[in-house]
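Q: Mind making up any chain with structure tokens?
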Amino acid sequence: MKPLPIGVSFFDTVIEQGYYYVDKTLLIKEMLDKKAAVNLFTRPRRFGKTLNMRMLQCFFEDTAETTGKDAVLWFNNLKIMSAGDSYTSLLGQYPVVFLTFKDSRQTSFESAYAVIKDNIADEFKRHNYVLKNEHLTAEKEHYERIMQGIATQHEYSQGIKFLSKCLSIHHGKKAIILIDEYDVPLEASWANQYYNDMVDFIRTLLGMALKDNPFLEFAAITGCLRISKESIFTGLNNLGVNSIRGSDYTEYFGFTQEEVTEILGFYRLESHADMIKDWYDGYLFGNCEVYNPWSLINIVKDLCSDKNRLPEPYWANTSSNSIVRMLIDKSDDAARADLDTLIAGGTIKKTIHEDITYDEVEKNIDNIWNFLFFTGYLKKTSEYADSQDNIVLGLTIPNKELFCIYRNKIQEWFRETIEQQDLSSLYTAILEGNTQTFEDELSALLLNSISFYDSRENFYHGFVTGVLAKAKGYLVRSNRESGNGRSDIFMKNVSAKGKAVIFELKAATTMQELSAKCDEALRQIEEKKYIHELEQEGYQHILKYGIAFCRKDCMVKIADSTIKE
């Protein structure tokens, strides 16, 4: 069995070391056919952007003086080699500048700039063979200053264009420029309050390299988010933007159903196809539905080791998912209602605009919805123009993996919210049998909550357990997950001389059912003798509550005789 390329983003390494490779080489043909001078590909993180950029580099780069490797060997038996001579004749024919910003996620402009400067210097070192060219005499000192890391910020901001000039003079051909993860430093600068400084630097760096550069054959740029032309690509009128809404290049980032079927067949995992689809499929790029490639190869690797392995949210572990938390933190009542709808598997409608900048994300809740869509946290289900010609999308959560991310962030938020609340009156009401105050306090908390479980009763169970967790001097136990026939929740004083409380929860479909559901819960406590275990432990003061919920409302009832004197 071929190894899976987890964390391997160098195309030549994937091919040379025999990793399983999903053939995306026809991306080369489509780019050449469409002839855009500058292509911007925006896709969610971990969707194969870097591997595709390295593939472009391996195909086009004249490697004779840099590595000495024969690019033909890398592309043998891949789809591009059957595309025709007009494409294969370009194999290994151009100088290539490759720059990645993936490591520039820093907490200050100075540290981020230092990383970018070092990456530029490294690319100059990779091409230092040009210094032997007699036609570059005037450029040598400038070249060496950048390569040695002692040039000015102004010189580094013009570095990509200058390198393309030197390569073009040496090779007698214009250069191809590939820039990977261009928006990583912008996202980091937004998060760490140095956005304007970074925007100014990146705007100059990319503008000089991509706008009216006579030494440029074509360029490709990748990122998670399109940054508006006014912010970064000022005056760049030759930019072809390929976002997840576009219909071009849709099958080249992420795995199609056909590709996943082939992978599962190769590793003999066909029986897991439905589970894998539920968890990792569902992203819609243009009209092409794709799987998350990072999660797909991780679950395949784990299943090859253990056929009983349960699925995990692999994608969630590659980032802080702070954008989901931001949405929760900034949610008003309407946004929380939208989150409830999404968590329940429903669809919401939002106006979408692509010309968003990082510094605008927090300005209003609509911008956060936009950000969630373009970075892969939401999937388009429909699209239309409203009466003002705004583009409106139907949005839903793509799959179970993303559902886990939302759920975990909501749970995290809820725990922190509860920790900040003074719940002493609620706990007092519970222990004194004051159902009205208990109901009022619980309803107030419920109004500010967000549903996050796949069934309503499970949500309410988690909600009440979280609320009770802060009761000092009491042990809280949740029995629903164990399926052992015990009460939903009980809390008991650490001493058997104190009080114990049994809670049985029910979900109602209408407000009119609340009272009957409370009675049903209390009957269940009696019929199944939930009190017996606590009595065996020596508790004499035991309260029994039936609680019924309907959306954001609840009713609380207590058994008529719940305390043994």
In short: The radius of gyration is 30 Å.
